[in-house]
Design goal:
Blueprint lengths: L9 H9 L3 E5 L5 E4 L1 H7 L3 H4 L4 H4 L7 H12 L3 E3 L20 E7 L8 E7 L1 H23 L4 E6 L4 E4 L1 H7 L22 H7 L14 E5 L3 E6 L5 E13 L2 E10 L1 H30 L3 E5 L5 E4 L1 H4 L18 H5 L9 H14 L4 E6 L5 E8 L8 E7 L1 H44 L4 H26 L5 E3 H15 L6 E7 L3 E3 H20 L6 E9 L3 E8 L16 H12 L3 E6 L4 E8 L18
Parallel strand pairs: 18-20
Antiparallel strand pairs: 1-2, 1-5, 3-4, 4-5, 6-7, 6-11, 8-10, 9-10, 10-11, 12-13, 12-16, 14-15, 15-16, 17-19, 20-21, 21-23, 22-23
């Protein structure tokens, strides 16, 4: 028999019916005492069909559910209960007017005691709120995915077994996989064989169960320190990576997200820097060892003149090596030390002035020599270091006392050699003049005029050679002579020997050219033969001879022109039976010169061309000077 329902005020039923929530009242036997209209509409169960019946008989799917347990607890203990849809999916079978499943929460409250125990159940529709949260979550997830998909670094998410759950586009491109190709595969497919274990790295870095704090809620719990490892692409090629890991939870599940940054370029740069640093360190050690091995006294000064470092020779210099600054140590101001009190050296002023200019204004390296009070010579060299860490300069003092002594001995030897050479040339000139005088005497005793002419030609040639040695004797240099001056003297002598202005007029034009002796002597003989022939074959009128010697760049040209009767049209120098012409051809061959002849009805021009000889290192004589030391 159905229980007798208590009388209810009309306004109370109106209020319960107007609520936008489901309201039902149960007695201690779980029989439905009240079922409002909202519940009728959401459950499609009319109140007349369920009132007085056991709720869990009317809805058998809810028997022994969490809702059933909560109702029994409230009726037994009087404690309220709250059932959320997120943790308790098995609640009332309710639907929205459009037929969709209604998401709802349930609150169970005990009623004040008035005899038998009763409870009030309130059902709230949270479908709109859940949908709104879902949309917001999807939007948030979309923003998150947009960020991570466009990130330049590879991002991979796995579960706690190491199975790939998701990877962004950068990871797909970096490892050459499709984004969905590795879903469900072990993350070891992306790591090289020698790489540490993915889960082991997470646990070792504090991302395991022991490092989660209270272990509640979602989001990132712990972020591990980055670790470097080697990855593997689809084709088996390796890639250097930096891995950062973070563990997070969602809906009761744990995940591990790893950010895999490509550090191939960074590692290559780091290796290059390490190699460069090693090379620089080795270079510095080699430089120090080299400087320590040098006998010179070397110091490095900063821009203010303070000593930054010295080599072993400087540090161990004894009293016998009193160079400028001897006794200075690292940290001393070199400029102050060299100009202070007893340490001041009267020879230091010029050296110090140059060094101050170099430190203050820069410029080319400075080199200076000075002699100390104990008669030791030093050469001071200073080179700027604008690119060094301290700026300043490298200062070097070299003991050149022995070199100075050797230079003095060499200058003395050179002076002796110069005197000897001058004496040799003087004796050769005298000997040739003696031969010339003998030929002259012999010529005077010859009755045949034709024979006397040959003797005079020989004497003229000997005097031409003697004149070369005379020039060498008078000059400071013994390897070369200035050929223009020699040529003028030759022409003057030939003009006087031929009878003066009444017999010939010789005009000389010459550039200033220094010729080696082995070129000057043959060329002088050629000029002597040509001028002598021009005077000899002048005809009835006085000879008019023009002699030029010009430097034409890479060639030298000697020209002898006259206005005499000229040579035959078919004249060939190489076929001439004249001793003089054969001599010209032979001498020209010795100096690799060419001979061109230009004949005319009135006059002949000889042009001798030769290459400019290579420069001869000059031996400069100087008085012998001795240095103490």
């Amino acid at each position: 028999m159905a229980p007798t329902l208590p009388e209810q005020p009309t306004w109370a039923l109106d209020v319960l019916g107007a609520l936008d929530a489901g309201i039902l009242l149960l007695d201690r036997h779980c029989r439905v005492l009240y079922w409002n209209g909202w519940m009728e509409q959401a459950s499609t169960l009319a109140a007349r069909d369920i009132l007085g019946h056991d709720l869990f008989d009317a809805l058998p799917n809810l028997r022994e559910s969490r809702l059933h347990s909560a109702v029994r607890d409230t009726l037994a203990t009087g404690a309220p209960g709250v059932l959320s849809h997120t943790l308790n999916p098995m609640l009332f079978p309710l639907h929205l007017p459009d037929g969709r499943r209604m998401v709802h929460n349930v609150v169970i409250r005990p009623l004040p005691p008035a005899g038998d125990a009763r409870c009030l159940i309130q059902v709230t529709d949270v479908t709109a709120a859940v949908n709104r949260e879902r949309v917001l979550r999807e939007q948030r997830d979309a923003r998150y995915r947009a960020i991570v998909d466009t990130a330049p670094d590879a991002i991979v998410t796995t579960d706690t077994r190491g199975m790939v759950q998701w990877m962004n586009g950068a990871a797909a491109r970096q490892f050459d996989y499709r984004p969905d190709e590795l879903i469900g595969q072990n993350v070891r497919a992306l790591l090289n064989d020698d790489a540490p274990d993915w889960l082991g790295m997470a646990e070792h870095s504090g991302l395991g169960n022991g490092g989660l704090g209270n272990g509640t809620g979602g989001g990132f719990d712990t972020v591990a320190q980055p670790v470097e490892l080697t990855g593997r692409r689809r084709d088996g090629s390796t890639i250097d990576l930096e891995l950062s890991m973070a563990r997070w939870e969602s809906e009761g599940r744990s995940f591990i997200t790893g950010i895999l940054r490509d550090i191939t370029e960074r590692r290559r740069t780091r290796e290059e820097l390490r190699a460069s640093a090693l090379a620089m360190r080795q270079l510095a050690e080699q430089t120090k060892a080299t400087l320590d091995a040098l006998p010179a006294f070397i110091a490095v000064l900063d821009r203010s003149g303070r000593i930054v470092s010295v080599n072993r020779a400087w540090a161990e210099a004894g009293s016998e090596n009193i160079f400028l600054g001897q006794g200075c140590i690292v940290g001393d101001n070199y400029l102050d030390h060299c100009g202070r009190g007893e340490a001041a050296d009267p020879q230091a002023d010029a050296v110090m002035d140059s060094l101050r200019t170099l430190l203050n204004q820069g410029g080319p390296p400075v080199s200076a020599e000075y002699v100390t009070t104990n008669q030791h010579w030093f050469r001071c060299l200073a080179a700027p270091m604008p690119a060094g860490p301290f700026g300043g300069t490298v200062l070097m003092h070299i003991d050149v006392t022995e070199i100075k002594s050797m230079e003095a001995a060499l200058r003395k030897l050179v002076g002796q050699k110069s005197t000897l050479l001058r004496e040799v040339n003087h004796r050769v000139k005298n000997s040739l003049q003696l031969v010339s005088s003998l030929l002259t005497l012999q010529t005077l005793s010859l009755p045949d005029e034709a024979v006397r002419v040959h003797f005079q030609d020989a004497r003229s040639r000997i005097e031409a050679i003697a004149r070369v040695h005379n020039r060498l004797y008078q000059a400071d240099q013994f390897q070369t002579i200035e050929f223009g001056t020699y040529l003028r003297e030759l022409c003057d002598d030939l003009a006087r020997a031929s009878g003066g202005d009444s017999m010939c007029d010789i005009v000389v034009r010459s550039d200033v050219v220094d010729l080696p002796i082995d070129h000057a002597a043959p060329l002088g003989l050629i000029a002597n033969e040509l001028i002598t022939n021009a005077v000899k074959h002048r005809g009835n009128a006085p000879a008019q001879v023009t002699v030029t010697f010009l430097n034409e760049g890479e060639r030298l040209a000697l020209t002898v022109a006259d206005r005499g009767p000229g040579l035959p049209a078919n004249f060939d120098l190489r076929k001439s039976r004249s001793l003089g012409m054969r001599l010209i051809s032979s001498l020209a061959g010795q100096i690799r010169a060419t001979v061109d002849i230009d004949t005319a009805p009135q006059g002949t021009t000889f042009r001798i061309e030769l290459a400019v000889p290579d420069e001869v290192p000059l031996l400069e004589p100087s008085p012998a000077v001795e240095y103490g030391g």
